[in-house]
Amino acid sequence: MLCKNVVSCRSGLAEHSDYLVDIANADVALWDDHTDDSLYQSVDILTAAHPHSGVGVFGELEKTMGMTWHKENLLNDLSLRPHVKPASTTMYDQMHVFLVNGLVNWELFSFIAAMKHGFQIGYKQLHDFLKPWQWPKDKVKAKVCQVFNEKREASSKEHVKAGASELLSVYQVFRHFVESIVARSGKLARETKSLLSLFRILDALQCMPRGCVSVAEFHAEVVNHMRYWQEAYPDEDHKPKHHMSVHLGKMYERHGMLWNCFVHERKHKTLKKFATTTSNTLNYEQSVSTDLLNAHVEAMSHPEAFNTGCYLVDPRAFINEIRGHRHECVCWELMQVMVIYPRVRICFRLVQYVHNLFVHAWTPPRLCKSCTNLKQIHTLGYITIT
What we know:
By secondary structure, the chain is mainly alpha-helical.
């Protein structure tokens, strides 16, 4: 919708035009971007043509304009045009571009297929590799190895069947698997290069809220990934989401951040919970809506519903073993476990001590050095108790 001259690879139109480019082209200098005014002009052209065009002719015109027309469309409301800016305020959702039937799902599927052909490594081997790994229970509720179980394999026809949160949990360990096994073999060099570039994009997206990634760095990685992907899988067509991913850099520059739909997607679980347990079929919609409203009001009435900043969730009273430190100054290192290796646990005890925090971290006495590098443990800072 945001580009006037970008067409699909299969159309072949770009091969016969100096103006048109296909979605595999990541050179933004060749794109002719829509403005708010030019999008409204396209809508007006469709509106004027609709009463006088047949279904087939009008359908072709819609394809040419790159949009679907409807009389009740928001862009057809003339009174809202001074307020609705369709081009300058549109932002593609990073979660759907990469993690919901997105680039990560597709590329993981292609990479696993390549591993199965070159290494005889498939879903079963990946499941067995992931099974011993453990994540903090407050971060991951289910076993991540289920992403590669038999049921998921049977349902994964063109892409890896996994949720967005599951992919975010599994990609770090998958990267470790690729770097320690596949990359060292020297095989699948192009496929590995493309996949690791995609994982770096996921890293960057998670660092954006903290301002750790510049627009230039992010855009360069996205463009590089498109080139690496084309080299690794020359027989596969680029997806529209490849093109959308390049737009994210410009949107990041324009708005200073990239919003995502994770919060909205999590709310779907609440809807599904009430929708599947409601048995009143005579007033089904009303019953589900009432339950949703009650749950929402209850959530908003929680004392911490509108808190901002850093604070403990569900804090507990201090315990006996730290009462002796009431008048002492103690410095503790707060660590967050990124990945927990098999047979290695790093435990946390968080309690509230008057107006300060007490953090106690302990590890098994035989923790090997290879499991204590920065890939597993990331130092966040220090907390002082007085």
